[in-house]
Design a protein that fits this description.
The protein is mainly α and about 210 residues long. It has a domain of about 70 residues. It contains 8 helices and 2 strands. The longest helix is centred in the C-terminal third of the chain and has 39 residues.
């Protein structure tokens, strides 16, 4: 499938891409970044765009963008803006990744980003600790069910509980009818009726025997 065929509205996607690329949010104007790619995917969906491929058929980059758009990206201080007043940029990571690091580890990876961005570097790798935290956050995010899955799971649980309750009621009803029948057979009236039927049967047999003689 050609790249543009993946999108339900290729023109909208190109329009959003151009806007994000020219802007200074998520990176320098005219430069591309992972953050800008994430913003583009999110904005495209926000404006009504979708994909012609299922989640299973998505490319790795599409899956990553889809995952990133669900994560809460921020600086170590919790800000949604990485660009500083002097033009340098702070480290930008998912909230879950920051939570995996100590204050010292946060400071180190952030300082590395700021110092390298002062030299004009756009892409600055994370420290070892930050890389590890980022990977763990991604795994946790990927393992978490999305809203559709949760809703589907809750629906199945509810259905199972309903079926269990229905089966239980039917079983109780059957047991009740069985016990009722047993109690009726042991009641005084039932015993008297049985005795009467027995006497009548014996009397009938005796009369038939007399006739034969």
């Amino acid at each position: 499938m050609a790249p543009k065929d993946k999108y339900t509205d290729p023109e909208l996607r190109d329009e959003v891409k151009e806007e994000i690329h020219k802007g200074d949010k998520g990176g320098k104007p005219g430069q591309w970044s992972a953050r800008k790619a994430q913003m583009m995917a999110s904005e495209y969906k926000k404006r009504g765009g979708s994909y012609n491929t299922s989640k299973e058929d998505q490319s790795e980059s599409q899956k990553h963008l889809d995952q990133w758009s669900k994560e809460d990206w921020q600086t170590k201080e919790g800000s949604g803006t990485a660009k500083k007043e002097d033009g340098t940029r702070k480290r930008y990571l998912p909230k879950e990744a920051w939570e995996q690091m100590s204050d010292d580890e946060k400071e180190k990876t952030d300082d590395k980003k700021v110092k390298e961005s002062k030299k004009g570097k756009q892409f600055v790798g994370n420290t070892t600790e930050a890389k590890s935290a980022r990977k763990k956050a991604s795994r946790d995010s990927a393992d978490s069910p999305d809203e559709d899955s949760k809703a589907n799971g809750e629906g199945k649980k509810h259905q199972t509980r309903t079926q269990t309750r229905r089966s239980s009621r039917l079983q109780d009803k059957a047991d009740g009818e069985k016990n009722g029948a047993s109690q009726n057979s042991n009641s005084p009236k039932s015993k008297k009726r049985t005795a009467t039927q027995s006497k009548s049967s014996n009397k009938k047999k005796k009369n038939e025997s007399s006739k034969e003689e």
